[in-house]
Design goal:
Blueprint lengths: L35 H7 L5 E15 L2 E14 L4 H5 L1 E6 L3 E11 L5 E3 L4 E4 L7 E2 L2 E6 L8 E10 L8 E2 L6 E11 L3 E7 L7 E6 L3 E11 L17 E10 L5 E3 L4 H9 L11 H11 L5 H15 L1 E2 L2 E2 L10 H7 L1 E2 L1 H14 L4 E6 L19 E8 L2 E5 L19 E5 L5 E5 L9 E11 L2 E11 H12 L6 H9 L7 E8 L6 E9 L5 E3 L2 E4 L21 E2 L4 E10 L4 E3 L6 E4 L3 E10 L2 E10 L3 E2 L4 H11 L7 E5 L2
Parallel strand pairs: 1-11, 7-18, 17-19, 25-32
Antiparallel strand pairs: 1-2, 2-9, 3-8, 4-5, 4-9, 6-8, 10-15, 11-14, 12-15, 13-14, 15-16, 20-21, 20-23, 21-22, 23-24, 25-26, 26-28, 27-28, 29-30, 30-38, 31-37, 32-36, 33-38, 34-35, 35-36
Helix pairs in contact: 5-7, 6-7
């Protein structure tokens, strides 16, 4: 959690984010026997520390179904006089699925005086990626906070949909002295548990038994704060957390009821959201399908036309209101409104493809924000997204309507390597893994021609982008206003130094996302140096990966890349008349199983040429690969210091 709040993941991918890390709370007692001075000494580099962060789920059977109550408590002790200035404001969320039934917050002063929070403000949640949702946020300030104060918060919930029980995250944005989750459940109920994250070996388990119940207590003592890295994947990939779910239970009559025992149970839950929609197709939508396919030469062209139409005509808008976060809307409604969320995109794509006699299927999938796979967990938290899958020429193709720039045949970059649950029929489904697009399809080829002049350098640029590089630039251009376009393109073409001046540019063709070609002219003052009669210039206009050494072995969190790629940058310098090159630097190539580069110098007539090539064959690297990543940089960085000397011919 980035603060005391329950924070929903901020990404454009759609359906309700199915794992809710609920949140909050505290008790009036401090479990640690340590004094304030001892705690401050132990956490001398911290502004504050959680003394306790605990969550207790109580699961029972009510009216023949699982009934779940939860109580969460947190105590935060302020260790410095500065901490209250930016850590006194807190809050919590509630929604249709998590109903708050009671809450209390107070400050315990260093003199053991209890000061209750009286001013709670509840308002609609405003997430910047959601058009409308049902979440409400309650916020407050702890009163009279000072060094040594302890903020206490307690919230009680009724969890109305036990299919969506939240994982518990042991760590937080500050250290936690005692992090604990308890799950109490009937003895004739089967609960499954799974620990995920980098520090699961630090979790201890205690099991308590009574005549009718079990209580599982998972604890993490002295849990360090989570260090943030901008290039890391989302926290579920590394933060230590517990996932638990009801496998089966006995109802009031003693009958065993399967709940989420396997993928068949999960599929029946998901299928229930789609089985009553799109039983017919509206006349307007059928007319659109006919117009898109009547002149198509083959089935693939039909599919491409339909996909492109949805991408360009249905605007993606996120909705998160109760079950609307799970149930797709009728395709006819989506068509008439011209907007929808990911489920709606799946709905309209599927029915339009079927109307064109193309086998099409609703598909549940998790984006790469989620580390889980269906083969590991039969849970709704595995999927936070919905797409359409078609069967074309014996091959399954994954179509994500929420990405208006995604190429037909490419998965959107955020679902690469993820398992998809494909709805074949009422009882039949497939689990297929989305492929990772090979690096050769995602290329940048950038060529720069340089000429020396009295002011420094003038030059021209040509760039060819394919695959995800092309899609990304199309997306940028789609959402850039005309007045901001030159500034955006300056950033796109920039090289050499911050004195780069973009004179002109061109982009072609905008209508075809497969490949995009751009060109520019520019000036680069003061980059080449003239001392006496000689010129000095470093052809490494790009010094990629500078300052990107990995803090190894300290860093444990993975590094995420959007896609595999190949990049080639060619810089050509025209030798001025009457000048010659003193010496040509040596070329160098270095690769290992993580990545690599090639820097090649050559002279062809009056042209000096530097070719820089980089490749990345991973969408994520883990800490066992960090040392080899850094090894490549050890060979690369010295190459950036090479300077060419052009001397006047006598």
């Amino acid at each position: 959690m980035a603060n005391f709040y329950h924070l929903k993941m901020k990404n454009k991918y759609c359906t309700r984010f199915l794992y809710y890390s609920f949140y909050l709370i505290l008790t009036p007692f401090v479990s640690s026997a340590q004094t304030f001075d001892e705690i401050k000494k132990l956490y001398s580099q911290e502004q504050a520390v959680f003394l306790n962060k605990t969550l207790h789920y109580n699961i029972s059977i009510k009216e023949g179904k699982p009934y779940v109550e939860s109580n969460e408590q947190q105590q935060i002790e302020y260790l410095t006089s500065d901490a209250p200035a930016y850590m006194r404001s807190y809050g919590f969320f509630q929604s249709d699925f998590q109903e708050v039934v009671a809450y209390e917050a107070f400050t315990l002063t260093p003199g053991d005086k209890k000061l209750k929070v009286k001013d709670f403000k509840t308002s609609a949640s405003n997430e910047d990626f959601v058009f409308y949702d049902d979440s409400k946020e309650t916020t407050f300030d702890f009163p009279s906070v000072e060094q040594g104060s302890i903020g206490n918060l307690h919230v009680s919930w009724i969890n109305k949909n036990p299919y969506l029980l939240s994982p518990y995250y042991f760590s937080s944005y500050i250290p936690v002295m005692n992090s604990e989750i308890k799950i109490t459940f009937p003895k004739d109920m089967s609960i499954k548990f799974l620990l995920k994250g980098l520090d699961t070996m630090n979790i201890t388990l205690q099991i308590e038994k009574t005549h009718k119940e079990y209580t599982y207590i998972y604890s993490y003592k002295n849990c360090p704060s989570l260090k943030r890295y901008t290039d890391a994947p989302s926290s579920p990939w590394y933060a230590t957390h517990l996932i638990f779910y009801i496998e089966n239970y006995k109802d009031d009559n003693g009958n065993k009821v399967q709940y989420l025992s396997d993928l068949n149970d999960l599929y029946q839950l998901n299928y229930g959201y789609t089985k009553t929609i799109n039983l017919t197709i509206s006349e307007d939508l059928k007319h659109i399908v006919d117009s898109l396919t009547s002149h198509a030469h083959n089935t693939e062209e039909k599919a491409r036309n339909i996909y492109s139409w949805v991408q360009q005509n249905i605007k993606y808008v996120a909705f998160e209101q109760g079950m609307e976060g799970f149930v797709p809307r009728e395709a006819g409604l989506v068509c008439s409104r011209r907007f929808g969320d990911c489920k709606d995109m799946s709905s309209i794509l599927t029915i339009m493809m079927k109307a064109a006699d193309i086998p099409a299927y609703y598909t549940w999938i998790g984006t790469r924000n989620m580390p889980y796979q269906f083969s590991e967990l039969p849970l709704p938290i595995v999927s936070n997204h919905m797409i359409c899958t078609i069967l074309l020429n014996g091959k399954y193709i994954f179509l994500d309507g929420t990405d208006p720039t995604c190429l037909f045949g490419f998965p959107s970059s955020a679902i690469q390597d993820k398992e998809a649950m494909i709805a074949i029929g009422e009882k039949d489904f497939k689990i297929l893994k989305v492929p990772i697009v090979e690096k050769k399809f995602n290329r940048v080829v950038d060529s720069t021609w340089l000429e020396l002049n009295p002011e420094g350098i003038k030059g021209t640029i040509k760039r060819c982008l394919t695959g995800y590089f092309s899609m990304n630039l199309h997306g940028k251009l789609m959402y850039t206003s005309k007045s901001d376009l030159k500034q955006e393109m300056k950033a796109e073409f920039s090289r050499g130094s911050n004195k780069f001046q973009l004179d002109s540019f061109s982009i072609t063709p905008l209508h075809n996302p497969d490949t995009i070609l751009t060109a520019a002219t520019f000036k680069l003052p003061d980059y080449a140096k003239k001392l006496g009669k000689d010129w000095y210039i470093n052809l490494n206009l790009f010094k990629f990966y500078e300052h990107e050494e990995i803090d190894y072995p300290k860093r444990k969190m993975p590094i995420e890349y959007n896609f595999k790629s190949e990049q080639k940058y060619v810089t050509l310098l025209k030798i001025p008349d009457g000048y010659k090159l003193e010496s040509l630097p040596e070329s160098k190539s270095f690769h290992n199983d993580v990545w690599g580069f090639e820097l090649r110098y050559e002279q062809k007539g009056n042209l000096l040429i530097l070719t820089q090539e980089f490749d990345n064959d991973h969408i994520q690297i883990t800490n066992d690969q960090f040392e080899r990543w850094n090894k490549v940089l050890e060979h690369l960085f010295p190459m950036y210091k090479e300077t060419l000397s052009l001397t006047k011919v006598p």
